[in-house]
Give the backbone structure.
Amino acid sequence: MEETVEDPPTSAVLLDHCHFSQVIFNSVEKFYVPGGDVTCYYTLTQHFIPRRKDWIGIFRVGWKTTREYYTFMWVTLPIDLNSESAKQQEVQFKAYYLPKDDEYYQFCYVDQDGVVRGASIPFQFRPENEEDILVVTTQGEVEEIEQHNKELRKENQELKDSCVGLQQQNSDMQAELHKKEVWLLVKHEPENKQTNRKHEPGPQRSELDGREHQKKLEQTVEEMKQEAAAAKKKQQQLTDENLGLSETLNENKIVCNVLQREKERLERENDLLKRENSRLLSYMGLDFDSLPYQAPTSDQGGAGQNPGLVYGNPYSGIQESSAPGLLAIKRCPTCKSDFTDDIFDHTLEQQRMQTLCLNCPICDKSFPATEKQIFEDHVFCHTL
């Protein structure tokens, strides 16, 4: 399909609609967004044979003759008219040839005699509106929304049940208050009758007494309301205190878990050190069980004892068996280098301290073994 400046064949005759069904346009949008190319899809029916000068034009709705086209494209003739693929055709209109207004247009297939063989539904060239956007929701999103709605309905029902319970509780309190008012009224009625018989009050005295009694009743009701408010406040305080204790308990559980993990880590580290000591002794041709136990205190071993080793210095027996006055020469089991006794112990201590690290059991952040206080502060921050 090639673009050309040659004018297409048209006709000035007013057209009828008898041939409009020989070419059918497919997948025509309601509107096309300006600034983009437009692809026109159409199908050739079995009774129509395309020819070389056939073309497809874009016409403004209300056109009378094929001379009123806005723009056009030549059609491509299929190689084999009998194949199924030859029936499905398309042409593409470049964006800079398309209309710039928002009038209604339609595609029309015009043969080389200027006769219209097919027309599409109307469409527009305008920007996309929000109401035109199709919202596509996946099955997973639908299930998630349904689950959320189910939870909201459940929560709403719980709130309704709670409201009904509160209303019932209020009714019970009102009934109880009414019973107490009646009880107070019955309790004070004999006293009022005895006072009336004793003093024989007149109409004014009796009215002053229905008033004092009413005042006492109101005062009693007010006291009962205050007691109920105090009890409610006390209950709220107990609830808050219980909540605080629960939070503290949870924090203590977290700290306990952290300490338990640290304990397990130290046990694993201790096992590693034991195996490392056994491995070093095997390099030196010594047996770990045959060595005397040396406590890791500063009182035993003097200045030559290494306090970093849990089971003492396994090489002390070699030093004692060496000739007096000479430095004991030792060989590194890894790089086979020779060291004196003090340098060898110091090197092993540095290697051990470098391999040891403190790992946070919550965020897995690592700290050097020499920064134990920083590590403990870091772990404590997770509980705040």
User: Anything to note?
Assistant: Residues 295-310, 317-328 have pLDDT under 50 and may be disordered. The first helix runs from residue 139 to 199.
